[in-house]
Specification:
0% strand; mainly alpha; 6 helices; 163 residues
Length: 163
């Protein structure tokens, strides 16, 4: 890495930023982007008002709590990684695991809001906005990176013999 040493602190900061960005995008997808894509031409306020008029509410608290739990987990991983002087690769694996778990976390967090939109507008409850594909891609890339990193960590390094 051209003289740049990867430290656990650096891995922890980057991991925390990436996990937080994932959670923020997931929240925007659930509460803003997907409703706007599901009901084209309507404003977000109009969507929420129409939902309220037919007796449906947009559950905001539960998705934010679920996504926030991922950020809290990332903070815990960062603090414990740094305090225990965990190897940078091991710390990176933990953050990659959090990103892998982002997909099921996103699904659980988006289920209630998706069903509320579906019930209010007589549509399917799935993703209408393509931004969810970015979340899935990040989780998939994290899975691939975790496998590669784990395999690299397991390969014994050849011993250097000094003459």
């Amino acid at each position: 890495m051209n003289g740049t040493r990867v430290t656990t602190s650096r891995v922890s900061v980057i991991g925390l930023i990436v996990v937080t960005a994932y959670a923020v995008l997931a929240a925007l997808q659930i509460l803003v982007l997907n409703p706007l894509a599901a009901v084209p031409g309507a404003s977000l306020g109009g969507i929420y008002t129409e939902m309220d008029a037919v007796g449906e509410t947009m559950p905001v608290t539960m998705p934010l709590l679920l996504l926030g739990a991922g950020v809290v987990a990332a903070i815990v991983v960062a603090v414990l990684s740094i305090r225990s002087r965990l190897e940078p690769a091991h710390s990176a694996l933990l953050f990659l695991l959090l990103l892998i778990l982002g997909t099921p976390g996103y699904f659980v967090a988006s289920f209630g809001p998706g069903m509320s939109i579906a019930d209010a507008f007589g549509i399917g409850g799935g993703d209408y906005s393509r931004w969810s594909l970015l979340l899935y891609a990040v989780s998939l890339a994290a899975g691939v990176a975790a496998v590669v990193l784990a395999l690299r960590a397991r390969v014994p390094r050849p011993a250097v013999v000094k003459a």
